[in-house]
Amino acid sequence: MLFDLPNPFPLESGETLAGARVAYRTWGRLNATRDNVVWVCHALTANADVLDWWPGLFGESCFFDPADWFIVCANVLGSCYGSTCPLDADPATGQPRYSQFPLLTVRDLAAAHEALRQELGLGQVHTLIGGSLGGQQALEWAVQQPDVFRHLVVIATCARHSAWGIAFNEAQRLAIEADATYHENRPGGGDAGLAAARAVALLSYRGYEAYNHTQTDPDDARLRDYRAGSYQRYQGNKLVARFDAYSYVVLTRAMDSHHLGRGRGGVAAALGRIRARTLVLGITSDVLFPLGEQQELAAGIAGAVYGELESSFGHDGFLLETSKITQALEAFYATELAE
Question: For 61-73, how does the pLDDT look when each residue is reduced to its tens digit (9 = 90+)?
């Protein structure tokens, strides 16, 4: 489904985005009291089909089962999965914007979600949930609209994107910009650079132990074409087949912009505005969003519950450790589930 945003849609940078739309999907039905809404904010290269990319947590017989919940997931602005992105034509010129697409921030992504919430007539959301960039969106939205959300669940995320995270994103953008085809502003531009960028990103998504466990060669005599190298190439090409370099640049820049305290008197003051009952989950092996960033969130949000997911998968654990996330959710909602 598509929702046309107010035209032109104002952005935090002062620019506007003309002809903007948001692609979204829903599952399940609103109950009689309209208090069973779960809104999912997705991560960097995901889409609105949460049942596809978060199986084990969303779907039939999962914790968030459409038989019980009205689930909403919207594709973020800038993404190439249906919402307005760099490949779409600028109404003023009739031509795609490509590398000239306006700067988006996490606040803009959250503002688009808010416009869609109002369009859908959802007065209150039972649970707002997201991991990584999705967690950044969820936090920002909960600060912007503290009275809308009853519960907030954020996993492997932060109050402000770190210099470490920004450096990883810049390294990826350098790889894309080093691909001469990116500057040709055409479909498929920057594909080779995007593959290299994904290879860089994977180093931050997994980590030393994960690679040693899954990508070590059993053949000690090998002198080239190592398993780890093949894995990097495979994952890079896999992303190229389903994503776009121009969108990747736009969304990594948006991720870099995440700073709850900007213009609000600092991070602590911003976190203090969140009223939702909050669960914060960190991943023990996450090198991109270390536990200290989750601990800062839990300490700053009144009454927040903090938990750690033991995992060897690194940052990707927020997508893979669904059994452990389910256990944490069952404990978090124990009283409510009993009722």
Answer: 999 999 999 999 9
Q: Is 316 annotated as a binding residue?
A: yes
CA torsion 120-124-130-134 (nearest 10°) is 50
Supply 16's token pair: 């506007």
Name, in order, each residue with C-beta under 8 angstroms of 129's C-beta and a sequence gap of 6 or more: 38, 39, 40, 41, 138, 152, 153, 154, 155
Pairing of strands 277-283, 305-309: parallel
Domains and CATH numbers, the chain: 2-162+261-338 (3.40.50.1820), 165-254 (1.10.1740.110)
Q: Residue 72: which residues within 8 A CB-CB, separation 6 or more?
A: 24, 25, 26, 37, 38, 39, 40, 116, 120, 122
Q: Which amino acid is at 74?
A: A
| Per-residue confidence (pLDDT) for residue 221, from 0 to 100 | 86
Q: Has residue 100 got a pLDDT over 80?
A: yes
User: Is 198 among the annotated ligand-binding positions?
Assistant: yes
DSSP symbol at 56: T
| Residue 220 pLDDT level (bands cut at 50, 70, 90) | confident
Burial class (CB in 10 A: 0-12, 13-18, 19+), 223: exposed
At 338, the pLDDT band (50, 70, 90 cuts) reads low
Residues that are catalytic: 132, 286, 315
Residue range 126-149: average pLDDT? 98
Q: Which of 278, 334, 283 is nearest to 311 (CA)?
A: 283
Three-state secondary structure call for residue 175: helix
Coil, strand or helix: which one is 69?
A: coil
Q: Which residue has the tokens 């989750």?
A: 294
* Mean pLDDT along residues 267-275: 98
Q: Which residues contact 2 (CB under 8 A, 6 or more apart)?
A: 21, 22, 23, 24, 82
pTM for the complete prediction? 0.96
